[in-house]
Design goal:
By secondary structure, the protein is an alpha+beta fold. Helices cover 44% and strands 10% of the residues. The protein has a 7-stranded mixed sheet, with helices on both faces. Strands 5-6-7 form a 3-stranded antiparallel sheet. Strands 12-13-14 form a 3-stranded antiparallel sheet, with no helix packed on it. It is globular and about 80 Å long. It binds 1-deoxymannojirimycin.
C-alpha cells in the first residue's frame, strides 16, 4: 500500500496544494492496493482478466451496435421489439420518460465509454454524428436532473476525452470544441429552471420553451427531489471552468447552499423531497438511495474536483449523520430526519448500491465491504439486484433496469483492496447479464427478477456506466489509452479532468464563506485516509470483514422496522404484543394497546413498533392475496428462451407454482374468442391454445380449449394496443362456480405482448413456448448454436424484428384489477371472485415460489449478526442524546399524532417510484 495515501491526512490545512494533487492522491490510495495483494481469494491471471475484458467489449458492441443499427437517432433502444423508443410514440411510462428529449440520448451517454473501451475510431464517428444530428431545441419537457447528468455530462465527458485525444496527435485532429459549444447551449437551456426564490431548480423544463412560456407545459411543480437539486455542481462547474462562463457554477452552488441550509439541524440529515419555493421538506424520510443518493456523492466529488473545503465539510457532516443513523451494517436503512432513530422503511432500494463506492472514496472501507457483501448475496439469490428488497431480503420491487451501481462499487472496492474476490464478483455480473438479460437485439431490463421476464427497455446509463466499470475492473493500466486517474467520474460515470480544479477558479473564491469555522477539526477529514491504516498490512483484511456476513441473506430473520429494546422481555417480563398476534376482541390486548405510550418509554416503543408492524402486515397481506406473475418463454428457434413475457395468472386451472412447467407449440383456437366448442380441435390438440379475451368468462374459454385437447391456454387481450407499460396486470377470475374441472394452466397476456407470439407464428409457423412460474435457463445446446457476437446478431435481426411489443407488467391490487376488468369484460374478476381471491388458503399462499418461498427461509434461526445489530442499536439508542422521543413518556394523543405522521410518510413512500 502506498504511503502516498497519507499525504495531507491529519490536521486540516486551510490552504492546500493544487486540488488536482488531492484528487490524484485519492486515486493513488485506491489503485496502489491492487499491487500488494498476496493472499486471500485466488488471484486472477492476466489472461483471465483479458478474456473477461474482451467479453465486456463484445457485450458493449452488442448493446451499442444494436442501438445504432435499430434505434438511432431515437433516445433509447427497445431491445425486445428491436426499434427505437421515441417519446410520444410509445405509451407513456411516466417520470421515466422525462430522460428522453429526442436528443439521441444513448449516443451522447455512450461517448466517453467508447474511449475508455479503446474504441477511438468509433468515438470519432459518434462525435461526428452528435454534431450532425442532435438537436437540443426540441419541444419536449425533460427532467433537469437527467438531462444534466446524462446529456450535459455526456457532452462534457466527450469533450474532455476529445481534447485529450487531439493533444495526443492521432485522432480528433479536426475537433474544435464543438461538443463544448453544444454543452454550453444546453447549459443555457437549463438555466431558466433555476428561476426560483430558493435557487432550487424546477424538476422539469421544456427544451424549446423553458418554464414560463404558456407553450412550456411545465413550471407548475412545487417539489423536487434532493438529488435532483443537488446533483448539478460537477457538470455545471466543469461547464463554467471549460468556458469561462461563471453563471453555471454559481447557480449550482446556490442550489447546494440552499439544501445545506435546510438540512435538519439536529440530525444533519436531508429529506427526500423539498418544496422549491418554500424550502420545506415534503418527504422527511432520509436514506442514501433513491432521491438523495447523488447529492452526497456530489458534495464529496465537488471537493475533489473543485477543491472547495466547504463541500468536504458538508459531506463529512452528513456522512457522520449517515453512519450514526442510517448505517446499520451491512444495511442502510432510511430514517426520519426529525426522529433519526426511527426507521422509515422496511426495505432498501437498489440505488443505494453506489454507496460502498462512495465510502471507498471517503476512505471508510469496512462498512463499504459489509454493505457490498450483503448486496452481492441478494444478487446471487435473484441474479440481479431487485429495485427494492426488504430488510429480511425478500423482493419488494421486482424490476431491475440493468442498473450499474453495484458494478461501480465493485470496481472501487477492487481498486481499494486489490482483493481478487471483487474480480470474481465482476465475472458473475457479466455471466448473469449474458445469461438472463441478453436478447438478440441488445440487453433487456428485467421486469421481474423472480420470473426472469423482460421489459422492452435498455436505459442509456447501461452503456454510460455498466460497461465502463466492468471494463475498468479487469483492465490493467496499459489496456486504457489514457490515465484514468486524471479524471473524476460523475454520477453517470462521465469523465471530467481533474485539471479543472485549477482553471477559472474565480467563482469558488467569490463564494468562500466563513460560515463553517464553527465546526471543529474532528469533522474535517481533509483527504483520503492513509491506506496503511485502512489495511493494516493484512492482505486478508477484506475477506475477514466479509467472512462473518457470508450467510447474512440466507439465514436472516425478519427484522422489525423499529430498533427495539428487549431488556424487559429478556428479564422475564411479558413479551410485548406483536401486531401479528393482535385480536381486537381480546380485552387484554386492548388494555396493552391503551397502555402503549402512556406508561414508559418501553411501552411507547412497543406501541410504535406495533403500529409499524400493523402497516407492514396489512401491506403484506394485500400482497399475499395476489398470485404472483407467471412467465411465457418462447423457446423455439430463433428465440431459444431469450424472450420472456410476463403473464397474468388465473385463479383456476393448473397452478404453475406447484407443478412443473407446461411446454408446447401454440395454435390459435377457432373461434378465436374460445367462447363455444372449438371447430379446429385437431389444430389445438396437445398444444397451447391462443384465445382472445372477451365475450365470455375466462373459465368458459378454458373449458372449451381443454375439451378440444389443449394442454394449456394463453388468453390475449382484445383491447388492441394494450400493454403492460400502461395497464396493470391482473389475475383471471373464475366464473363464480366450481372450477375444479379445469386442469390445464391458463395465462393472460396484454395485446402487445400477445402479438409477439402471434407475429412469431406468422414468421416461423412453429412456435414453442414454456408456461411457468419462472423463466427457465436457456437450452445450452441451442445457445451454443448461436454464438453471441454482434455480427451473428445483426444477421439474425429478422427474429428480433418480428417482436412488436413491450413487456412491462405489474401485478396490482385486486381492486384496481377488478375495476379494469369489469368495465368491458363479463369474465373479469367480480366482487364474488374477489372474496374467492381473498380466501386463498394459507397453504396455497406459502406454495408461492417467489415471495413466500423466501419467507420460509427466514423462519428459524436469527444470525448472530442480527442479534448483534439489535444489541448495537440498543446501545446506540441508549447512548444517543437525540433519542429523547423514545425515552420520555408521551401522552397517547401525541404518540398517535406521530403515528399518523409516520403512517402518512410510509404510505407516501409506498406509492413512490424510484
Ligand atoms: C444513473 O443515471 C445515475 O447513476 C444516477 O445518479 C442514478 N442512477 C442511474 C442508474 O441507475
Amino acid at each position: 500500500m502506498s504511503e502516498a495515501g497519507g499525504r495531507g491526512c491529519g490536521s486540516p490545512v486551510p490552504q492546500r496544494a493544487p486540488w488536482s494533487l488531492v484528487a490524484a492522491t485519492a486515486a493513488i490510495c485506491l489503485v496502489s492496493a491492487t499491487s500488494v495483494w498476496t493472499a486471500g481469494a485466488e488471484p486472477m491471471s492476466r489472461e483471465e482478466k483479458q478474456k473477461l475484458g474482451n467479453q465486456v467489449l463484445e457485450m458493449f458492441d452488442h448493446a451499442y451496435g444494436n442501438y445504432m443499427e435499430h434505434a438511432y437517432p431515437a433516445d433509447e433502444l427497445m431491445p425486445l421489439t428491436c426499434r427505437g423508443r421515441v417519446r410520444g410514440q410509445e405509451p407513456s411510462r411516466g417520470d421515466v420518460d422525462d430522460a428522453l428529449g429526442k436528443f439521441s440520448l444513448t449516443l451522447i451517454d455512450s461517448l466517453d465509454t467508447l474511449v475508455v473501451l479503446n474504441k477511438t475510431k468509433e468515438f470519432e464517428d459518434a462525435v461526428r454524428k452528435v454534431l450532425r444530428d442532435v438537436n437540443l431545441d426540441n419541444d419536449v419537457v425533460v427532467s433537469v436532473f437527467e438531462t444534466n447528468i446524462r446529456v450535459l455530462g455526456g457532452l462534457l465527458g466527450g469533450h474532455s476525452l476529445a481534447i485529450m485525444l487531439k493533444e495526443k496527435g492521432e485522432y480528433m485532429q479536426w475537433y474544435n470544441d464543438e461538443l463544448l459549444q453544444m454543452a454550453k447551449q444546453l447549459g443555457y437551456k437549463l438555466l431558466p429552471a433555476f428561476n426560483t426564490t430558493s435557487g432550487l431548480p424546477y424538476p422539469r423544463i421544456n427544451l424549446k420553451f423553458g418554464i414560463r412560456k404558456p407553450e412550456a407545459r411545465t413550471g407548475t411543480e412545487t417539489d423536487t427531489c434532493t438529488a435532483c437539486a443537488g446533483t448539478l455542481i460537477l457538470e455545471f462547474a466543469a461547464l463554467s471552468r471549460f468556458t469561462g462562463a461563471t453563471i453555471f457554477e454559481e447557480y449550482a452552488r446556490k442550489a447546494l447552499d440552499f439544501l445545506w441550509e435546510k438540512r435538519q439541524r439536529s440530525s444533519n440529515l436531508v429529506g427526500v423531497t423539498i418544496n422549491i419555493h418554500t424550502g420545506d421538506w415534503v418527504r422527511k424520510d432520509s436514506g442514501v438511495g433513491a432521491g438523495i443518493d447523488s447529492y452526497y456523492e456530489y458534495l464529496l466529488k465537488a471537493y475533489v474536483l473543485l477543491g472547495d473545503d466547504s463541500f468536504l465539510e458538508r459531506f463529512n457532516t452528513h456522512y457522520d449523520a449517515i453512519m450514526r443513523y442510517i448505517s446499520q451494517p451491512p444495511l442502510l436503512l432510511d430514517v426520519h430526519i426529525h426522529k433519526p432513530m426511527l426507521n422509515a422503511r422496511t426495505w432498501m432500494d437498489a440505488l443505494l448500491a453506489f454507496f460502498p463506492g462512495l465510502q471507498v472514496l471517503k476512505g471508510d472501507i469496512r462498512p463499504a465491504i459489509e454493505t457490498h457483501e450483503m448486496l452481492y448475496q441478494v444478487i446471487k439469490k435473484h441474479n440481479f439486484l431487485p429495485e427494492a428488497f426488504t430488510t429480511d431480503f425478500r423482493v419488494h420491487w421486482a424490476q431491475h433496469p440493468l442498473r450499474p451501481e453495484f458494478a461501480e462499487s465493485t470496481y472501487f472496492l477492487y481498486k481499494a483492496t486489490g482483493d481478487p474476490y471483487y474480480l470474481e464478483v465482476g465475472k458473475t455480473l457479466i455471466e448473469n447479464l449474458n445469461k438472463y438479460a441478453r436478447v438478440p437485439c441488445g440487453f433487456a431490463a428485467m421486469k421481474d427478477v423472480r420470473t426472469g421476464s423482460h421489459e422492452d427497455r435498455m436505459d442509456s446509463f447501461f452503456l454510460a456506466e455498466m460497461f465502463k466499470y466492468l471494463y475498468l475492473l479487469f483492465a490493467d493500466k496499459e489496456d486504457i489509452i489514457f490515465d484514468i486517474e486524471d479524471y473524476i467520474f460523475t454520477t453517470e460515470a462521465h469523465l471530467l479532468p481533474l485539471w479543472l480544479s485549477t482553471t477559472n477558479q474565480s467563482i469558488s473564491k467569490k463564494n468562500t464563506t466563513s460560515e463553517y469555522t464553527e465546526l471543529d477539526d474532528s469533522n474535517f477529514d481533509w483527504t483520503c485516509p492513509n491506506t496503511q491504516i485502512l489495511f493494516p498490512n493484512d492482505p486478508l483484511y477484506a475477506q475477514s470483514i466479509r467472512e462473518p456476513l457470508k450467510n447474512v441473506v440466507d439465514k436472516s430473520c425478519p427484522r422489525g422496522i423499529i430498533r427495539v429494546r428487549e431488556e424487559s422481555f429478556r428479564s422475564g417480563a411479558k413479551p410485548p404484543l406483536r401486531a401479528r398476534d393482535f385480536m381486537a376482541t381480546n380485552p387484554e390486548h386492548l388494555e396493552i394497546l391503551k397502555k402503549m405510550g402512556a406508561a414508559s418509554s418501553i411501552d411507547a416503543e412497543d406501541g410504535l413498533r406495533f403500529m409499524q408492524e400493523m402497516i407492514e402486515l396489512s401491506s403484506q397481506q394485500q400482497k399475499e392475496q395476489q398470485l404472483p406473475p407467471r412467465a411465457v418463454q418462447i423457446v423455439s428457434h430463433p428465440f431459444f428462451g431469450r424472450v420472456v413475457l410476463t403473464a397474468g395468472p388465473a385463479q383456476f386451472g393448473l397452478d404453475l407454482s406447484r407443478h412443473k412447467e407446461t411446454r408446447g407449440f401454440v395454435a390459435s383456437s377457432k373461434p378465436y374468442n374460445g367462447c363455444s366448442e372449438l371447430t379446429n380441435p385437431e389444430a389445438v390438440m396437445g398444444k397451447i391454445a391462443l384465445i382472445q379475451r372477451g365475450q365470455c368468462m375466462f373459465a368458459e374459454k378454458a373449458r372449451n380449449i381443454q375439451n378440444a385437447g389443449a394442454i394449456g391456454g394463453i388468453v390475449i387481450d382484445d383491447n388492441e394496443g394494450s400493454s403492460s407499460d400502461t395497464a396493470p396486470l391482473f389475475q383471471m377470475a373464475g366464473d363464480g362456480k366450481d372450477t375444479d374441472d379445469i386442469k390445464i394452466p391458463m395465462l393472460f397476456l396484454f395485446s402487445k405482448e400477445g402479438s409477439i407470439i402471434l407475429d412469431a407464428i406468422r414468421e416461423y409457423e412453429e412456435v414453442e413456448v414454456l408456461l411457468s412460474d419462472k423463466a427457465k435457463d436457456r437450452d445450452p445446446e441451442m445457445e451454443n448454436e448461436e454464438q453471441p457476437s454482434s455480427e451473428n446478431d445483426s444477421q439474425n435481426q429478422s427474429a428480433e424484428q418480428i417482436s412488436s411489443s413491450s413487456q412491462e407488467v405489474d401485478l396490482v391490487d385486486q381492486e384496481s384489477s377488478e375495476e379494469n376488468s369489469l368495465n368491458s369484460h363479463p369474465e373479469a374478476l367480480s366482487p364474488a371472485d374477489m372474496d374467492n381471491a381473498a380466501s386463498i388458503s394459507p397453504s396455497e399462499q406459502t406454495s408461492n415460489p417467489t415471495e413466500n418461498h423466501e419467507t420460509t427461509n427466514l423462519n428459524g434461526e436469527c444470525t448472530d449478526l442480527d442479534n448483534q445489530l439489535q444489541e448495537q442499536s440498543e446501545t446506540e439508542e441508549d447512548s444517543n442524546p437525540n433519542v429523547s422521543w423514545g425515552k420520555k413518556v408521551q401522552p397517547i394523543d401525541s404518540i398517535l399524532a406521530d403515528w399518523n405522521e409516520d403512517i402518512e410518510a410510509f404510505e407516501m413512500m409506498e406509492k413512490d417510484e424510484l
